[in-house]
Amino acid sequence: MDLKWVLLDDDFGTDVDSLSEVLNVPPIISRILLRRGVNSLEKAKMFFRSSLDQLYDPFLMKDMDKAVERLRRAVLSDEHILIYGDYDVDGITSISFLYLILRDIGAKVHYYIPDRQLEGYGLSLKGIDYARELCTGLIVTVDCGITGHKEINYARSLGMDLIVSDHHEPSRELPDAAAVLDPKRPDCDYPFKQLAGVGVTYKLAQGLLQRMNIDLSILEKYIELVAIGTSADIVPLVDENRIFVKHGLARLNETENIGLAALINAANLRNREIGTGQIVFILAPRINAVGRMGDAERAVRLLTTSDENEAREIAGVLEQENRYRKSVDEETFREALEQARREFQPEQTRALILHKQGWHSGVIGIVASRVVEKYFRPTILITVEDGIGKGSARSVEGFDLYGALKECEDLLLAFGGHKYAAGLSIASDKIPEFKKRFEQIARERIQDEHLIPKLAIDSELRLSDINPKFTKLLQLFAPFGPHNMRPVFVSHNLEVIGNPTVVGSNHLRFKIRQNGQAFDVIAFGMADLSYRLVPGDRDLKLAYVIEENEYMGKTTIQLRAKDLR
Questions:
Q1: Rounded to whole angstroms, how far apart are CA atoms 157 and 153?
Q2: Is 235 within a domain?
Q3: How far is the C-alpha of 564 from the C-alpha of 544, rounded, in Å?
Q4: Average pLDDT over residues 346-353
Q5: Cα separation of 391 and 381, whole Å?
C-alpha cells in the first residue's frame, strides 16, 4: 500500500531563526526541536541532557502516600509480599524491577505471573490462592489490576491487602484496594499520564525509598529494566519515559545484570550499541516468547538470577522459544490473510475481525499488528477454545479501540487496553453479533483519510547538507520512539548509481548521488520496489532517515529508506 507523504510545514515564524542562533544549530534542527516542544535554551538542556533528577515527585500520583505507607509497613514487619504481574515484557520487567528492589532492602518478597493459556490476562483466583498458600499479607499488582474487581474482593475476603499499580484505562469504578496507582485515573493529577506499567512501578519504588530514607542510587542499579519495559510497550518516548529509556540504555550497553548480559550475548548483541530498535525487535521478542508460548516465570528468573550458569541456560531457552514463536506466528499469519482476503472489500471494509478455533493465543497480538500493516484497518484476531474466544486488537491512527470495545461491553466477558491496542474475551456464540456491531462503529467513525497510511516528513534536504556534524546533532534526539521518532527527510532529483541489489530476504541496497555527493541506501522490505530504481535515472525521490553504519571497524553515514518514488 502506497504511503501518503506529508511534508510537515509548521509556521513557527521567527522562532526558528531565534532558536538556531541561541543553540548554534542549523534551522532544520531548530524546526525539528520546535515540533517536539523544545522552544528555549532551558528546554533544550532538559531535552539533550536529561537527568533522573528531572523526574516528578512520586507523591503527586493519587494514592501514592497510601501505597507507600502500606508497602513500608509490610517491609518493616516482615510480611510476605507477593508481586503479581502481566506476562508481557512490561509486566515481566515490572516484576523483576520491584522484586530486586524489595529483595535488596530485605523484604520477604515473592512473585506470580498468570498462565496465558489457562488464566489469561490480569488477576486470577488461582493467583490469589497461591498468595494465600504463601501466607501473603500484601499483594502488589504491576502492569495489571485496574479492572480486577472480583479478584481483589476475593483477596480482601481472605484478609489480604492489595496495592494496584497499573497504567491501563480504568473502568467506571476503581477496585476496592488499599491503594490504586494509575496516572489514567480521572481524579489523578500526576503531570505525565503516559507511563508504561514499569514506569508506574518505578514511581512506587521511588516513593518507598524516599519515605524509608534509603539511597535512591539503588533505582539506577536496575534502570535498564525500566528502559526495556518502557520501550517494548510502545508508549510515547517523551517526558519521564524518555528519561527512563535514555538512562537505561546507557547502562544496558554495560549491564551488570547477569541475566540481561546472557540474553544480550545469546542475541548476538554483545559489543554492539543497543538502542530502542534493538530492544523492540531483538530483546523484547525473546523475553515475550516464553510468556506467549509457555511459562513467563522463566523470564523473571533470568532477569533476577545471580547464577551465570542458570542465566545462560534460560537465555538459551528464550532463543528456542522465540524460534518456535516465529514459526507459529508465520502459520497463523498465513491463515489470517486467507480469511482477510475473502472478507476484504477496499471501498467498504472498515475493520477486520478474524477468528478461528485453535489459534495460539500467544501470537494473535503480533499477527493482528501484521494484518494492520497489510490492510491498514483496525484488526481483531480471536482464537476460540471450549466455547470461549480470546482476542487481541490493534488499531490505526484516528480510531479509538478501547472506546469502540466499551460500546460492545454487553457482548464481552472482559476487555481492557489502550486506544491502539486491546485484549478481550467473548463467548463464541456472541462473535457474529460483536463483529456486526464493531464493524458498524468503525464505519461510522473511520473516514477515508484514516485508511491511508501516512509518512510524516520533517524537511526537504540536499545530500550536500548531510555531514558528520549534522548526523551527530540528529543522534542527540535519541532515544527514538513514538512521539519522538527519528527525523525523516526527503530529497529529490537523485541519480541512481549502478544496479540495486537484493540482500537478505527482501531488502534493497543501492547507491544515490546528487551534485557529486553520494550515499549508500538500505531499504528494508522493499525488494518489490526495485523496478522504481533505474540506473542512471536522475529523477528519484527518496524519503529516508540518516544513520551511521559500522562495518569492519569503519563507520560511515548511510540512508535508510522509508519510501521511494
A1: 6
A2: yes
A3: 9
A4: 92
A5: 5
What is the Cβ-side half-sphere exposure of residue 179, based on CA atoms within 13 angstroms? 22
Amino acid of residue 461: L
**Dist CA 396 CA 375 (whole Å):** 10
Are residue 146 and residue 264 in the same domain, yes or no? Answer: yes
Alpha helices, H only, 253-343: 258-266, 276-278, 284-293, 297-304, 308-343
* Three-class DSSP category at 542: strand
Closest CA to 316 of 278, 265, 363, 279: 265
pTM, rounded to two decimals: 0.89
Beta-ladder partners of 68: none
326-330 contacts at long range (C-beta below 8 A, 24 or more positions apart): 328/293, 328/360, 328/362, 328/363, 329/363, 329/366, 329/367
Q: What is the distance between the alpha carbons of residues 300 and 87, in angstroms, rounded to a whole number?
A: 10
pLDDT at 156 (0 to 100): 96
Among 451, 475, 502, the domain boundary falls at 451
500 falls within a domain: yes
Determine the residue type at 179. A
**Could you tell me if 131 and 146 lie in one domain?**
yes
- 210 in the same domain as 106: yes
Q: Which residue, 451, 482, 516, sits at the end of a domain? A: 451
For cell 537465555, the residue is 315
Spatial separation of the C-alpha atoms in residues 419 and 395, rounded to whole Å: 8
The pLDDT value recorded for residue 448 is 85
pLDDT in tens, 106-132: 999 999 999 877 777 789 999 999 999
H or E stretch including 208? helix 197-211
351 and 205 in a common domain: no
> Both 131 and 194 in a single domain?
yes
Number of domains present in the structure of the chain = 3
User: Which CATH number is 91's domain given?
Assistant: 3.90.1640.30
340 contacts 370 by C-beta, under 8 angstroms:
no
Is there a domain that residue 28 lies in?
no
Q: Cell 548521488 appears where? A: 513
Give the 3-state secondary structure of residue 93: helix
159 and 184 share a domain? yes
Report whether pLDDT(291) > 80.
no
Residue 69's φ and ψ, nearest 5 degrees, are -65, -45
Secondary-structure breakdown of the chain: helix, strand, coil percentages, each rounded to the nearest 5:
45, 20, 35
Does residue 325 fall inside a structural domain? no
Q: Report the CATH number at residue 536.
A: 2.40.50.460
Q: Which three cell numbers stand for residue 273?
A: 550499541
CA separation for the pair 313, 315 (Å, rounded): 6
Query: How far apart (Å, rounded) are the C-alpha atoms in residues 221 and 219?
Result: 5
DSSP-derived pairing of the beta strands 507-514 and 517-523: antiparallel
CA distance 344 to 62: 45
Domain CATH code at residue 349: 3.10.310.30
Q: Tell me if residue 11 falls in helix, strand or coil.
A: coil
- Domain membership of residue 175 as a residue range: 54-319
Instruction: Check residue 75 and give left, alpha or beta (phi > 0: left; psi -120 to 50: alpha).
Output: alpha
